[in-house]
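We emphasize that the prediction below concerns an isolated chain of 535 residues; any contacts that depend on oligomerization or on bound cofactors are therefore not represented. The input was used exactly as deposited, without trimming of termini.
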Amino acid sequence: MSANNAYNANNIRLHNTLTGNKEKLETLEPGKCGIYCCGPTVYDYTHLGNARAAVVPDLLVRFLRHQGYEVKYVRNVTDIDDKIIARSAEQGVEPAELAVRFTDAYHQDMSSLNTLDPDVEPRVSDTIDEIIDLVATLMDKGLAYDVDGDVYFRVTKFKGYGKLSKRSVDEMLEAAGSRIDVDERKETPLDFALWKAAKPGEPSWTSPWGEGRPGWHIECSAMSAKHLGDNFDIHGGGRDLIFPHHENEIAQSQGAHGEDTYARTWVHNGFINFAGEKMSKSLGNFFTTRELTAIFPPETLRYYLMTVHYRSGLNFDLEVTCPACHAVMDKEQQESAVCGSCGHETTAEILKKQVRFPSLEDADDRLAYIYSTLAAAGRFLETAKASASEVIVEGPVAEMLPAFVAHMANDLNSSGALGVLSKPLSEINTLLASGKGVNKDLRYATIAYFVTSMKEVAEILGCFGKDASEWLVQRRDMKAGRVGLDVTRVDELLVQRISARQEKDWTAADRIRDELAELGVTVQDDPTGSVWAFL
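Result of the prediction step, given as a token string:
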């Protein structure tokens, strides 16, 4: 029995930043979709904002492919940049060496979050010839000018400048003119660098304007054109890139290739609102992706990133608790390392271990509930007898997948899609708990239908696709590490309880069960044995 996804792919709608409207997706070539996404500037480890900027286009690519589109997904790597040069100087290494190291780290982090590899991943250092050709084209058209080996784009010569960010050139000029650090060599303060003249110790390449390196914005115009053509379907990135980066990309690309060229639809994800105001700087209020995946299953982070619509802000909350009374400590108390509730004196080093992430904990609990349901459903289907007759499944389980897909087709509404799962999960858990009063064949068919449908959900979301029992054990052990549970003691008690049950010493078995409960642990017994989990 398989779930029936009859949703019409032609109904996919995406919010287009360029027009400000939610629009029906109409690709240049029916059934095919070219997507370009701004990738990482590789000078440091990724944080949760970088992860969201990768998960959102990954979700879009997965969904479009599920709906039958042939997708070509291009995501670049910026391996030449001011930040890379500055960081490499700090560390005493070559910029190229630093870029390779953090490119590898980025790939590791995104792989842990189950993001698909892009079909093409161009690097700036491999696209220099195309960048130089594009700058030369802009020079020939009078849209760029050379000043001592620095080449700038003439913003006022491109009449559409500001259309993506909804800004007026006159207002931008007025605001830019008030700055005290305006480069007097530029014709106007808004003009931006296409090519930068070489400086001592920096990587450089030979160009018609002398030795130098690309500016930041020109790289994406060149790489997208090389791999997707002058016109393509979707351009993605974080909202912080709308201005100036994406605005400048449009100016460069349309300036070179024509007004109706470049990306047709612009998809931008919202910010992550970090709760830095709740955490003292002495504790360090920045967490990398790999720091978080060291204490939570990576899939928990991915799930968390999808619990809010991609265009909305996402609150990343945290708390620092007193190691003695577990009260939440504010910034002042963290700085003094003295708890305001109980007066306990501690240290910054100890408080670093007291940081909690309530929003991730909630996501972890919800994900564990879904995986627990899948694990129980799997065990049921392995032992129960399949229906011999054709049974029609109706209700929440039958309606789940079409409703899920409908939400995803409505501007990639992952939060609404996840909400669709609630009623089917409740129904399945009720059926798993008891078959009393339910037709045996219908019970089996409904649970089987749910499991099959969830495989398609997992394919779209990149979540819920792991072996449920294995994931639950991983999650349990990581949570034990976070809360400081003595796993060795729990395992010892579990062995004692199993022995008591085998000897039919039910009093001892119940006593041990109560002792485990005091540790926050429950025991799950089935014909294959006993395992422990958090209450």
